[in-house]
Write a structure and sequence with these properties.
Blueprint: H1 8-38, E1 41-45, E2 48-52, E3 59-65, E4 73-75, E5 86-88, E6 99-102, E7 105-106, E8 112-116, E9 119-123, E10 130-138, E11 141-142, H2 143-149, E12 177-184, E13 187-194, E14 200-203, E15 206-213, E16 219-226, E17 257-258, E18 261-262, H3 264-276, H4 278-281, E19 291-292, H5 304-312, H6 322-325, E20 326-327, H7 348-354, E21 373-381, E22 387-392, E23 399-403, E24 413-416, E25 421-422, E26 434-435
Parallel strand pairs: 2-9, 3-10, 14-26
Antiparallel strand pairs: 1-2, 3-4, 5-10, 6-7, 6-10, 8-9, 11-25, 12-13, 13-15, 14-15, 15-16, 16-24, 17-18, 19-20, 21-22, 22-23
């Protein structure tokens, strides 16, 4: 083979081309290497995503408060970032503040850390060898002692009904908000009247309104939305309407249970509870305080709730003849202990204390939704021997009697135990409700 020798000029030209190509590839390589450290990246650490700006930043220590108010912090399993129920302590110098180190020396300069919805985000980390130690405090508030204490109690001079066993309620309350005191079968009860904006609770994906704090400290709630807080329309009730009972040709068909036979609406509520609450939140429920289905007769045709509300305008939180009419679960000290699931409906008495009044129009109080929905209070047996139960009306928010075979809205009512814990930071509004910790 013949080897041709390059001339001096051609050699210099080829060398320049090679150097240019090498330089271009060198610049590309260097920029890519720098970009690796400039671009914010994410890694998944158990339940939290740690945002970081340095490729080797993967060292993290996590400690959580062992009990509310305690100065003792324990290492989280596998350095797991809590998914919920905690708040991150800010960077600082105390023994239980979050902090970062660079090659073993504490240095928080320029670093910020935030924590939201189980995600930790770091900013300002520029040096390799950085390790951050995070401390988390429990986010809890006791519903019975602390949450109740956050509501100032109004007096009769503010517009609350008299504090008696059977106070008179002779006017509607359609605007503004009162937090009033009354009596139930368990002691002092505290209830909302008018149009409060700070009585929202979230349980899982469901929104509720606080009706009242029962005499035993538990909290009575009425359903108000799935996925978002609803104040009107069909979103305030379960997805389908229901009859109260069928057939309707007996006074016994106003009962939530007739002997061992469930009403139609009880079957609907039990099914919904078993699917949506029982597994995750059943331990939070108080079944001993119960639900009043006052089916005693005032005369030959009218039940006692009709006499109290429509005629005398004297609602009560106490249940008439609780041994038969107060539906509770087993293990309580009062009631019939017939319930398997601690779920029921509101009473017309509670709706009256909340701001309604007999046949009077009130579209301003928080229980008005623009929909007909069932209460648990019997009304009468009409001239056709049909059983009739109270509803809260769609058109005017007034109370009316509905034949039990008619389909109306269903709004479950539950009672949370007095020791139920809520995430810290909620203020009871629809956008920032008190949220139950699982």
């Amino acid at each position: 083979m013949k080897i041709e020798k390059l001339s001096k000029g051609r050699f210099i030209k080829a060398s320049i081309i090679v150097l240019v190509v090498i330089s271009i590839f060198g610049v590309i390589f260097i920029n890519k290497s720098k970009a690796k450290y400039r671009v914010t990246q994410s890694i998944q650490i158990v339940n939290g995503t740690v945002q970081y700006t340095n490729a080797d930043f993967s060292m993290l220590g996590v400690k959580v408060q062992s009990a509310k108010g305690s100065s003792d912090y324990v290492s989280a399993s596998n350095n797991e970032v809590p998914a919920s129920g905690y708040k991150l302590k800010p960077l600082g110098d105390s023994a239980t503040d979050s902090y970062c180190t660079i090659n073993g020396t504490k240095n928080n300069t320029g670093i910020t850390i935030t924590y939201e919805n189980g995600t930790v985000t770091f900013k300002g980390i520029k040096k390799q060898g950085t390790r951050c130690y995070l401390f988390f405090d429990l986010q809890t508030v006791s519903s019975g002692s602390e949450l109740l204490g956050t509501y100032p109690v109004n007096s009769t001079s503010d517009g609350c009904p008299n504090y008696e066993d059977a106070p008179s309620v002779t006017s509607v309350k359609s605007s503004g908000s009162l937090f009033c005191k009354g009596k139930d079968d368990f002691g002092d009860t505290y209830y909302f009247r008018g149009n409060p904006t700070n009585n929202w609770v979230k349980i899982g994906n469901f929104y509720w309104r606080i009706i009242r704090f029962n005499g035993n400290g538990s909290i009575r709630l009425i359903y108000s939305g799935n996925g978002k807080a609803e104040t009107s329309g069909t979103g305030t009730q379960l997805s389908s309407t229901s009859t109260y009972h069928s057939p309707a040709n007996s006074a016994d068909h106003v009962r939530y249970m007739n002997g061992s036979t469930n009403s139609t609406i009880k079957g609907v509520l039990d099914s919904w509870y078993n699917i949506n609450l029982k597994s995750a939140y059943g331990s939070k429920m108080d079944g001993s305080v119960g639900f009043c289905n006052d089916a005693d007769m005032a005369n030959s045709t009218d039940f006692k709730p009709k006499a109290r509300i429509a005629t005398n305008k004297k609602p009560t939180f106490k249940c008439n003849t609780p041994i038969t009419n107060l539906y509770t679960t087993s293990g309580g000290t009062k009631g019939n202990q017939k319930l398997t699931n601690p779920i029921g409906l509101i009473t017309v008495d509670e709706a009256s204390f909340a701001g309604g009044l007999g046949d009077s129009t009130n579209t301003g109080y928080y229980l008005y939704t623009g929909q007909n929905y069932w209460t648990m209070s019997p009304y009468d047996v009409n001239g056709f021997s049909n059983a009739v139960v109270f509803i809260v009306g769609a058109t005017r928010g007034a109370f009316g009697g509905e034949n039990v075979f008619v389909e109306d809205g269903v709004r479950p009512v539950i009672n949370l135990r007095s020791d139920t814990l809520f995430k810290e930071g909620g203020n009871g509004t629809s956008t920032n409700p008190y949220e139950v910790i699982t």
